[in-house]
């Protein structure tokens, strides 16, 4: 009887040992499996974290230019039918910015969508000016379209300057737009009374791309031509920075 009991006990001990070993094997397997999964997931995150770092390598910009599409939002600017100055200026400004970036010049738009910077027009203009100082810009370039109350034959683009220092920039931009042959160059104008020029801390120009009521309408209403004008404006800026 005692021997039988002993045998039974030994059998039970054996089972416990086998079960314990089996448990250890299972736990070891689980540990290996989980650590493999964790390291695999972590490696995914690592590559994700490294890739944008490579792409976002800060560009070595030569200078910063504030590009200001006039008006926006409630303030539509000059208009005829469905054509608004605020849209013409934005399309052109985006083309300027794109071209400047290609030449390693950082372009900052005062607005990149159809919105005003402030409900109050005076504050709106002040906020645009402030961006020059905030971003240590070299130039401020504002883009507008001319209007005229009556039906008129008046046409052409003109560039307003802040001071003598802005004149070289205005001349280069004017020469490049002129080459497109869309309209005549009405030349440089005194822009000292214009808030975005007067209150600006850097050399600044304001370009009136043309007269919306008249023959300039044809190119002001053509986005592809506006892009060409934007590229020409950028070329004038690039020439002055290089
Ligand atoms: Zn305007």
From TrEMBL:
Residue ranges of domain MurNAc-LAA in the record: 129-238
Gene Ontology CC annotations of this record: outer membrane-bounded periplasmic space
GO-annotated molecular function: N-acetylmuramoyl-L-alanine amidase activity
UniProt keyword annotations, A-Z: Hydrolase
InterPro entries: MurNAc-LAA_cat, N-acetylmuramoyl_amidase_3
Protein's GO biological process: peptidoglycan catabolic process
PANTHER family in UniProt: N-ACETYLMURAMOYL-L-ALANINE AMIDASE, N-ACETYLMURAMOYL-L-ALANINE AMIDASE AMIC
Official protein name in the record: N-acetylmuramoyl-L-alanine amidase
């Amino acid at each position: 009887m005692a021997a039988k009991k002993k045998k039974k006990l030994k059998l039970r001990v054996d089972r416990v040992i086998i079960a314990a070993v089996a448990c250890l094997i299972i736990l070891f397997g689980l540990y290996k499996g989980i650590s493999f999964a964790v390291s695999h997931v972590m490696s995914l995150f690592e590559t994700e974290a490294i890739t944008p770092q490579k792409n976002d390598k800060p560009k070595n910009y030569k200078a910063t230019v504030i590009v200001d599409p006039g008006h926006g939002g409630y303030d539509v600017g000059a208009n005829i039918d469905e054509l608004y100055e605020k849209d013409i200026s934005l399309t052109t400004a985006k083309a300027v910015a794109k071209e400047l970036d290609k030449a390693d010049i950082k372009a900052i738009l005062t607005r990149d969508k159809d919105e005003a910077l402030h409900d109050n027009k005076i504050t709106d203009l002040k906020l645009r000016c402030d961006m020059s100082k905030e971003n240590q810009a070299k130039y401020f370039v504002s883009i507008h379209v001319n209007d005229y109350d009556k039906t008129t034959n008046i046409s052409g683009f003109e560039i307003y300057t802040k001071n003598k220092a802005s004149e070289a920039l205005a001349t280069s931009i004017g020469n490049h737009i002129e080459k497109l042959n869309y309209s005549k160059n009405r030349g440089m104008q005194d822009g000292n009374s214009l808030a975005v020029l007067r209150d600006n801390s850097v050399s600044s120009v304001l370009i009136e791309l043309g007269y919306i009521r008249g023959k300039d309408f044809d190119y002001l209403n053509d986005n592809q031509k506006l892009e060409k004008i934007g590229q020409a404006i950028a070329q004038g800026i690039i020439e002055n920075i290089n």
